[in-house]
Protein: 6-phospho-beta-glucosidase
Amino acid sequence: MVKQFPKDFLWGGATAANQYEGAWNEDGRGPATSDTSRAVDPSERRSMGSEFSTPMTLEKVVAALEDTEGLYPKRWGSDFYHRYKEDVALMAEMGFKTFRMSISWSRIFPKGDELEPNEAGLAFYDKVFDELNKYGIEPLVTLSHYEFPLHLVTAYGGWKNRKVIDFFVRYAETVLNRYKGKVKYWLTFNEINILGMTGYLSGGLLFEDGKLHLQEMYQAVHHQFIASSLATKLAHEIDPNNKVGMMLARMEAYPATCHPDDIMEAIHKDHANLFYSDVQVRGYYPSYMKRFFKENEIELVFEPGDEAILRQYPVDFMSFSYYMSSVTRSPKNQTEEQKATAGNLILGEANPYLEASDWGWQIDPVGLRVTLNKLYDRYQIPLMVVENGLGALDTLENDGAIHDSYRIDYLEKHVQQMYEAIEDGVDLMGYTPWGCIDLVSASTSEMSKRYGFVYVDADDQGHGSFDRYRKDSFFWYKELITSNGASILK
Structure:
């Protein structure tokens, strides 16, 4: 019997407008938090980038917008705005069944709080969806992916202000109505669980004293929970065919030893990670968070009806990113010699059984199977891997070839573990590897860290033709999709 994935499995790729689209000040788009993300020096590539992972102040934001000498690569991205037809054709050539992308909120509502949308912005996404639909590619659309209208930061203080819920719901209702029949799959907030790391980019939060305030962070998260539930309600009312998912940055943490304290530490890590999906999938705050809030003196403000909104409008499916796993050890058992490894917004002890990428992210394909089983056991709803991949330094040869066997090896091993998870009984909808066409890094704002099947001829300074070149992985992925996985499941 030939081993294959389910016949309706959604193979594809993933991007985000703030890293891929470009045209940051064209056709009425307003400034967004991502436009102030300055590129970090290559020597700091294992860090997360200051604008990405540290509290921002109003002074820094204003300075970035007025800066004419600094490097802000997300402003031009990969120029998808002008090359979407070419890129969609490349996706179709690979055989994509779905394409995960995001809508730039400030392209639809430039300031975020207007009563009427920007027609030019709406028309752009009409053209993109029409192009995708022409090839039979199902759009998977994220409403908020690491960018936020800058006016909502300066005028309202971001998501800590409950008024922003109404602005988001208006934005969601606008695009849900506009693209009815063109888009069926929606995600509300990208990696909602790392607002503590992306408080400014995705939450519009400013902390003038340079410190992250948990009270304001979790209040902002609560407002996003309510906004997501209300958007889910609207999606189902506007088109019963709509399916809405939540999106989590999955951080699988293994206990360092079988010491009971290390086991308990791993449970705490899971609680910190899965709190967000517990709320959005189950529809209520988990009991373990009561102790966390108490010990950290956090008192969330719930408006009347909030609990009912969360319970009545949970998501239809769960999506997540998976790049690596980590190792955790109880503080009681740590020594000065414990090594740390930088990862996708997490720090943890190095796993001696795993190799690491050029950026220090440890490679753990079996961890993906572990994650899929744990999540499905916990929630029993369809799952989707919407980010996974290897960021690496690719070389464009003189003949236009890019030999990225390292990426093929990484992806192949992860896909094989997804198949094993499906055999375990996991309901897995699809797979959209990250940055299917090269784009600017979310954390360090560099182009050098490439994930794609397609090479974009641009460097970290934005120099280059921006022409597209097929990597070896392009042809590997095309064969994988054509065979529905059989090519690597022998």
Confidence is low (pLDDT under 50) at residues 339-345. Residues 51 and 152 are 17 Å apart (CA to CA). The chain has one domain: 10-488.
